[in-house]
Amino acid sequence: MAGRRATGDAAGPAHRRVPPEQRQFNLILALMATEHGLTKQDILSTVAGYAERFDDEADRASLERQFERDKEDVRELGVPLETVDQLGAEGDTRLQRYRIPKSLYQLPDDIEFSAEEVALLGLAAQVWRESSLSEQSRRALTKLKSFGHAVEQSVIGFAPSIRARESAHDPLAEAIDRRRRVSFPYLKPGAAEPELRSVSPLALVNHEGRWHLHAHDEGVDAPRTFLLRRIVGAVRIDDVEARAPRPDEAARVQRELQDVFERTTATVAARPGSEADVVLRNRAGTVVEGETLIVRTTDLAVLAEELAAFGADIRVVGPDPVREAMLDRWRQVVNTHG
């Protein structure tokens, strides 16, 4: 693009060239992993792409210019890289800290993506996870910890979870607005065939990244909460008036789901340093007990599916139904591809 400044490395042949985009990724990762920010000295001496040249005094001016260019490029990408002066030392660039506040680096709640955009973002998320798990990234963050910086582990091995809403969501939301009953085929865990459910929809709730429908099941005359991903066919809006939801219906269901999440656990052992180990350690609610991880969930069947994806890197200690469900998942894969 005309007028675009060069961002290539100024390092000589004695230094391994790190592509600008990789160096800038390393910079973003380091700044997102620290709450209070890093000084220029911290960055240049620890972040891959700078640290290799830090000890070369003759190259220091060139290295600092490279850092200044990278800061501008990162900001042009829309990343809110802030510069914070130390109290009483305003303007002293040696003491200034750089940071990326997480609160400013989040998408607005009303942003939605098409299926194609979700797929592309999913690939980008995988690249982030693999890069953040690289040996270079681990070494840099370990070095920052040794310097006394609190490192936010949740960015390591983290793949942003971006999900398209299930197709059942919109007709269910419409039925709630119109106060109409709905019917849909629902596949319970372990069932071979779906069952047709007729319900009065009361509230749609997102918990731990998954959409749930709370409704009054007219077939059994009792309240039920359904996971939208298990609705396996079209939602039909019936011309029958539904029961009215309570004013606090959604908030009450959120509390109930959180209660289930707090008391429903599985105990697993992951291969140290594996993707399973890193991801599960940083999962919300996980408790580390020696070599085992106690993982919380609202749905043990869904958790079993997630654990199965880690393959041989994971072992389920208990409960037995989760272990069996994970093994069944593996058997299905073998039977399908065997």
Automatic annotation (TrEMBL):
Residues 170-233 form the WYL domain. Coiled coil: none annotated. It comes from the Bacteria. Residues 268-333 form the WCX domain. One of its GO terms (cellular component) is proteasome complex. Keywords: Proteasome. InterPro entries: CBASS_pafABC_assoc_protein, WCX_dom, WYL_dom. This is Proteasome accessory factor B. It comes from Microcella alkalica.
